[in-house]
Amino acid sequence: MIRKPLATVLALGLLVPLAACGDDDDDNGGDGGGGTSELMVLGAASLTDVFEELGATFEPDYDAKVTFSFGSSTDLAGQVADGAPGDVLATADQTSMTVAEDAGVTGDVETFATNVLVIVTPPDNPAGIQTLDDLGDATWIRCADEVPCGRAALGVLEDNGVTAEPASLEEDVRATLDKVISGEADAGLVYATDAVAADDSVNTIEIPGAESQLTSYFVTTLEQSEDSDLAQEWVDLVLSDEGQQVLEDAGFGAP
Amino acid sequence: MTRDPLGRAPLLILVPAALAVVVLLLPLVVMVGSTDLPGLLDQLRTETARQALWLSVSTSTVAMLIALVLGLPLAWVLARLRFRGRSLLRALIVVPMVLPPVVAGIALRTAFGRSGTIGEPLLDATGFAFPYTTWGVVLAHVFVAMPFVVISIEGALRAAGSEYDAAAATLGASRWTTFRRVTVPLALPGIVAGMVLGWARSLGEFGATITFNGNYPGTTQTMPTLIYVTRQADTDAALALSLVMLVVSVSVLFALRERWLGVGTT
Amino acid sequence: MSGLEVDVTVPGRVTVALTAEPGEVLAVIGPNGAGKTSLLGAVAGLVAAEGTVRLNGRELGPLPVRERGVGVVFQDKLLFPHLSALENVAFGLRSSGVPRPEARATALQWLDRLGIGELAGRRPKELSGGQAQRVAIARALAQHPDVLLLDEPFAGLDVGVAAGLRIELTRHLASYDGITLLVTHDAIDALTLADRVLVIDDGVVAQVGTPGDVAARPRTEHVARLVGLNVIRQGDVFRCFAPGAVTVSLARPEGSARNLWRGTVLSAAPHGDAIRLLVAAGPELIADVTPVATRELGLEPGREVWLSVKETAVDTYSLTPEEPDKVRP
Q: Is B132 near chain C, with CB under 8 Å?
């Protein structure tokens, strides 16, 4: 009989932390004295460096705190289609953006950059790659067909009549780059922007005619944004001369 | 329903247990419910799916056997021998179990990759490297599954106790004979349990494999990897594939249900 | 030199020196915790010990357990659960390289000798206590050890089963030409099976002698109790008298104060035709009284009584020359 109160206390004790988790939604810029606004930007993985750089100028200019979520375009589009929180969506392909559009969560969709594929090798280029045709004799990798970078790669290889098979189809372009940098692969097909970001850790070889397989990048504000004005500011920044310059420096092509 | 002579089970135990069942089974049940059977069968017919399934099952089985051949002796050493640093060794052995799989993959790469400490000399000398090969998949699976095997078996060996070893010694048996004829047979349920655990862990292994071995159909594309890349393009197909994997796993585990509960259930 | 010579100390447990001849059965008795099992462990090599264990001139100390030629019947029997009775008995033979058919044939002979040949195919869990003990004995003897160690072989058996087994064991030990050390806390085992008895108490040897000697002139409380005698020790001198020789009275009797004690009755229980009283009178003493006297004097627990015994009924003896340094002062 003495044990019953103990059980009740324990049960209540477990509920308290659960109850305390309920109150996240009321802190967006309402605590007196002009708190900073918050912006959540969801972007394709290849936009990581560029967006973070833009974020560094955005934050002081608009007195905002920008949080990024980088990942595969498919994942991000799927998330926002389901109604996940976010203010801006930027994808590396049309397909993902369409998913979001179909779900009715997008605003005006704009294309803001393009990307081309290049070949990267470790700095000392151990396999002596110079053109796509040299890939056949080396251990080379590219993105899987299911991701935008992989589809672009397929197109480039087909255009150039290259039939060699890669040793691996990586799940995203960063994984591809990573394997080349660490020397696990003699060569890889990645975006020009990734090559620029990797700087001296890779040797970059341009692919003639790769422009025929452009990857386009799309950006939009999201319906579920809690501060659509601020979201629009971000999109504007990306499309502005300043934003476009940053994109160009990073290796992106014009939209 | 026959009455339990010890009385009815307390609600305070049944309620959390029911909650646990819900947490564990609800996602699976919903997943099964969301898939359509024709889609499932379509997936089974594709070459990629069957290749990936075969690769998963075969590499897991081979990895489990390697983990047994190497892990059983190690478990015996940890359970039966006393030496300085034993606790430290045991703690280190468990590390692959708690490492995030991708970290495990990176660790494997640093050691056995094409430009790894052991991998590079190996490549230069023999022309063989583990990454991008099926043997590399086996290696990754062994790395993540062996700790499970070792710890399970060590537990079984300790529980079986060393008194029988002593009895065997008084009967003139060498330590090897004792191991063969007494220790292993007595610990067999625990050993089998460890093997099944290792196999199950291998089957689900993804992070280390894709980081260390990459992904290529027929060679290194295991079922989890196939599901991951398929999901980027076609969620329904990924769902169907997931279901295929679920059915295979559940069938095997269910078939072995008496064997993998381990010690104490002879 | 043949035979067993032991002079060991198991740190924190027991210190013993003993000798035994081939064919001899030496019973090791004493209260629980005295160190008897540790002694067996030291001889078998299962327990770390300092000192020497010499068997037929060979020093066993540096040898691992399996090379010592010592057969053990454990207190828990430790029959291999996954092997049949036959395979258990054959185990020692096969471990020394005897081919399987031969080993099994010999094992079957042993099981027959112990009267359980038809149980050869059974697993240990399908055997009764007595049957399992027979298998354990067969298993230990089948490999012809030089020394046979038995740790409480009749513990946990029905009185009837134990009695039967005891008789059989006597027979087997008679035809066994090695040395037997039998640990027991039961006086009957020691008295019926042993050629000599070693009494261990509190980690040291308290007495050594033939069963008759030890029973008649116990030097420890434990043995005295086992055989139902009173023993009082003063220095190196022991004074022993039977319970039947004790007079119980309510008032202080006349007579020599030397054999007079005053105490409280702790318990009263039937013992044959008499009632045996346990009295706390400084030392604990047992006294037999008639049922009539018990009633008349109201001898129940808590009663204050006087105990006295005639000097002529007291057997006085002291330590023998071999014993001095091994016995607790």
A: no
